[in-house]
Amino acid sequence: MKFGKFKSTKGLNRTFNRIRELGIESNITELNTYGFTVVSPEKVADKEFFDRIRETVLRLCSERTGVEFSVEKNGDFGKYKAQPQSEGQFLLFYLLMADRVFEEWILNPTLYTIIDYLMGGQQQLSSLTSFVKWKGKRDSLGLHSDSPPDRDGHLPACSDVANATYCLTDYTLENGAIAMVPGSHRYCRQPRPGEGEEQAIPVEAEAGSLIAWHGNTWHGAFPKNTDGLRLNVTSYHCHRRLKTQEAYQWRVSQEMLDRNPPEFARLVAADDHMGWDEGGPDYARSLRYLPEDAKKRLAAARKSKAREAAAAG
Questions:
Q1: Taking each helix axis from N to C terminus, what angle separates 109-119 and 10-22, rounded to the nearest 10 degrees?
Q2: What element of type H or E holds 68?
Q3: Domains of the chain: which residue ranges?
Q4: What HEC string does the chain produce?
Q5: How far are the Cα atoms of 35, 114, 164 from residue 38, in angstroms, in the given order?
Q6: Is the distance from CB of 233 to CB of 95 less than 8 angstroms?
Q7: What's the CATH code, domain 7-267?
Q8: What average pLDDT is seen over the chain?
Q9: Is 55 left (phi over 0), alpha (psi -120 to 50) or beta?
Q10: How confident is the model at residue 79 (pLDDT cuts 50, 70, 90)?
Q11: Cα 63-55-176 angle, rounded to 5 deg
Q12: Model's pTM, two decimal places?
């Protein structure tokens, strides 16, 4: 039996085949079973890209704080005022607009394929940030789910949001690893205060790994007890029906769109005609950045409709 070519699953076949080509079938099984997975560095990106994106994040840390940053030294808030800030940690926001290396990152085949699988092809980039963390205390693990609940606190079983961390330093328990509660994505609710702390485990991963998780999974972080930085790039995605955390739709430049494939335009909602002014919707936005296979399906449907109209006339 030839999986990946069924006519009834045209929308799924491409993702299925990408998963096979990338050799990440076991990661997909882990996502489904435990709500998170760790992809090893060799299946994510090469050393040249890793070095380039880490150097860029460190440069942005220095530019925004006015303090020189390196992975071997603890950080400093300096002049940086963006919130939230907590003991030993701040966030760098809006990375997509800061350097072209981040355009490359959100199109990374492994990242893109895992998020595409989790969100059924309906993902948008909600925010691209870096959690810059150094030695500091925590009162709790801060367990939470990234999914927005309804007014009764319920979460959908599907992954309305999905998150992934590209580890730019080693993640260990002593180094302030992400905390996960395995299987909690199936609870479909937020944790109660203090709930899950005893079941949480440290997600340990070497630098260059990708940690990805279902939007419902309860997660937080362990305190960092070592000197130096714990550094990452966090790629948070949401379903196209939800609002994004960072504004891309009307702010990405035409130059950015022209130098990237249609997938990039969809990720930043450049193909979304919603959010119009007094001029009304521009439906051409939706068609302009369709993938080639979707354009072919649309053209075939139009031809079929034209033939039917001609036969009826």
A1: 140
A2: none
A3: 7-267
A4: CCCCCCHHHHHHHHHHHHHHHHCCHHHHHHHHHHCEEEECHHHCCCHHHHHHHHHHHHHHHHHHHCCCCCCCCCCCCCCCCCCCEECCEEEECCHHHCCHHHHHHHCCHHHHHHHHHHHCCCEEEEEEEEEEECCECCCCCCCECCCCCCCCCECCCCCCEEEEEEECCCECCCECCEEECCCHHHCCECCCCCCCCCCCEEECECCCCEEEEECCCCEEECCECCCCCECEEEEEEEECCCCCCCCCCCCCCHHHHHCCCHHHHHHCCCCCCCCCCCCCCCCHHHHHCCCHHHHHHHHHHHHHHHHHHHHHC
A5: 11, 11, 10
A6: yes
A7: 2.60.120.620
A8: 93
A9: alpha
A10: very high
A11: 90
A12: 0.92
| Residue 28 near residue 20, CB atoms below 8 Å | no
pLDDT of residue 60 exceeding 90: yes
Handedness of CA 144, 146, 152, 155 (dihedral sign): negative
Residue 9's Cα: distance from chain center in Å?
25
